[in-house]
Amino acid sequence: MTTFDEREDTFEKKFALDEELHFKATARRNRLLAHWAAEQMGMQGEAADDYARAFVVSNLQSKDNEIAGKIAAALKGSGITAQEEDIRSRMILLWEDATAAILAGQ
User: Fold this and answer.
1) Average of pLDDT values for 84-92?
2) What's this model's pTM, rounded to 2 decimal places?
């Protein structure tokens, strides 16, 4: 194997690991966000867990702006006013928490 082939293989492995981290962090962030929204809507315990789990599964392919919109709509449906900008800010903080937890092996 040449040096070029070894470098290419290394870059491909790093890309795969980065993609896996991104997927896991996004799913964890969405779960944390949905859990927060469930608590805002008065759900607790298993009901909040079920809501968060269902939200993550139903939004695996959704973009961040769609996620923020869906959370805002769910909160609005429960009579809670939330700006999408505030939800996006919370998403950034939760992304950082999720990424740090995954990198720490949690």
Assistant:
1) 95
2) 0.87
